[in-house]
Design goal:
Layout: H1 5-46, E1 53-54, E2 66-75, E3 81-85, E4 89-93, E5 98-106, E6 112-121, E7 129-134, E8 140-142, E9 147-156, E10 171-180, E11 192-193
Length: 201
């Protein structure tokens, strides 16, 4: 006995519903994977949460207004390193490029790879804080006892002078925290071994 038109219609609707549900689930899974890079892109564009910017070169102008940048270094659980700024702070003019460095030492007994997260405070400064060079863009691998000096080159965008909400800001804190890398690098990629300390690269 053949199916009635009503039964065929119900079967067709059930199949369509199942297909739509499958597409919806696949879309939600895809969005969950895309959420992290999209959020990261949003933070980089807006400076949200103190996320800094990346620049290729120095700005065209330098202002007379000075600002002090303080540096902070931390190490997360599971990474047996010491990590500290070479200098605690630097005072520079807005638009002027600064060259500073952080020093990391692997105090453990095995080779370890770390990756750094970073931000600036006040958070609203993030959109104006530009890095030209930074160790945070790559994983860092240190052998046992190895010490490296990792450079950072940055400037504060002169456009900050047009932001009335930040006109009284005189101090910025640039903070880094190293965590164990999810996938250790195959070979050391740290910037440069500190003279007289650790093993050379």
């Amino acid at each position: 006995m053949s199916d009635s038109p009503t039964t065929k219609t119900k079967t067709s609707r059930a199949g369509l519903t199942a297909a739509l549900c499958a597409v919806f689930v696949a879309g939600m899974v895809g969005m969950s994977f895309a959420a992290v890079p999209l959020y990261r892109m949003f933070c980089q564009v807006t400076g949200f949460g103190g996320t800094t910017q990346q620049a290729d070169s120095a700005p065209a102008r330098v202002l007379d207004r000075e600002i002090t940048v303080r540096f902070d270094g931390n190490v997360g659980n599971g990474l047996g390193w010491s990590f500290r700024p070479r200098e605690r702070s630097v005072t520079l003019r807005i638009g002027e490029v600064a060259d500073i460095a952080f020093i990391a030492e692997n105090r453990g007994t095995t080779t370890a790879t770390g990756t750094a997260t970073f931000n600036v405070t006040p958070n609203a400064i993030g959109v104006y804080f530009n890095k030209i060079a930074c160790f945070c863009f790559t994983e860092q691998t240190l052998a046992p006892g190895e010490t490296v000096e990792m450079p950072v080159q940055f400037f504060v965008d002169p456009a900050i002078a047009d932001d009335r909400e930040l006109e009284y800001v005189r101090t910025i804190t640039l903070s880094y925290t190293f965590f164990p890398a999810a996938t250790p690098a195959a070979k050391p990629v740290a910037a440069a071994t500190v003279a007289g300390e650790g093993n050379s690269l």
